[in-house]
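Late entry, written up from scratch paper. The run itself happened at the end of the previous shift, but nothing got recorded in the book at the time, so transcribing now.
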Amino acid sequence: MKISRLSWAPLVALAAVACSTEVASESPADAPAGTVTASEKAQIIEQFAERVHARWDLTIRQSDYDVVTTRRGPLIMDREAMAARRETEGDSEEPTVVTSQVTIPSTERMKQEIADGRTTFQEGVQWREPKCMARLGDKDGEGWMDICYQQGYMDYAAKTRDNWAWRWYGSCAPVEGGPDHMEMDECYIRLWQNENVDPRIVWNAWDPQATVNLPDCGDVSMSVTAGPVSAGQSIHTCEKLVPKKGVKAGDMQATWIGDAYWAEDVRGVGFMVSIGIPFGEPEAKMTYYYQWGYKYSMCNLPPSAFDQCDVF
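Output as recorded:
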C-alpha cells in the first residue's frame, strides 16, 4: 500500500489551486487535537534551527518562522510564506496541500538587501538568506521531511539580463521501524512556473542532468553557470537520485528513490537551476510554485534479504 504526503506553495504571487476543496484557515472548531502552545512552538522552531545548522551549516532567524498545526501534523513555515497560506485536507489518495507565497525580489529590492548586508557574497553570487520548511511527520507518524531553498543573484559586468541561481535541498527519513514497519520509498522537491511567468525567461543551466545511482551512499556535487559565474552545492544521499527537467525555464524536479526503514536512514534530495530574466522584470512576472513530499510503504516484516513491503 503506497501512501504519499505532499506540500506545495507558489513563489511570489498566490494563484488558484487545482483542488476540489480549499480552506483559507482552520477555525477553532476545526483545529486538530494537540494544538501546540507558544512555548512548544518556540522549542520546535529552536530544534528546527539547530537541525538546519547541523545538517547544512545554515543559520536561520528563528523569529522568521512559525508552527502551523494541521490535521496531518505540524508544519514549520516562514512567516512571510504563511501570509497567504491555504490548505486542502484529503485522504492518502488526495494528500494535504499547503499553499503559501514567497517573493522573488526585483532588481531594486535585491540591491537594497545587498546594501543592508542581508546577502552573502560567494564567488560572484550574492546569496539571499535561506528559507526552510519542515513537515514533522503526519499523524500516522510514518516519517518527516525538511527542505530549504536559496536564491542567488549571479552578477558580472557583461551580463545582458538578470541571472539567478536557485539551490533546493532537503532531507527525509522514516520514524524508527517499530511494530508498524513503515518504510520511506521516495521523497522529492519540485519547482514549476506559474501561468503568469514571462515567456522571455530562459534556461541557463540545471543539475543533476542525469540519474545518479549510489549503491553505496555518497556526496552528489551540483553546479550551474551563467557567463563566467558558477554556483554549487553538494548533498549526501543513497540509492538513486532522479532528476526531471521541464521545458519551461526553471521547471525541475528531483526525486530520491530507495528504501529507508530505520530512523537513522536519512536521505538527501535536491537540485539546482539557473535562469535568465529580462532587466526590470516586475515581481508579479516571476512566479514559481514549489512542492515537496514523500511516499512510504507499510511492511509486514522488518527489512531482510527479501522486501516484505506492500505485501497485504
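The longest helix spans residues 38-56.
(Scratch paper discarded after transcription.)
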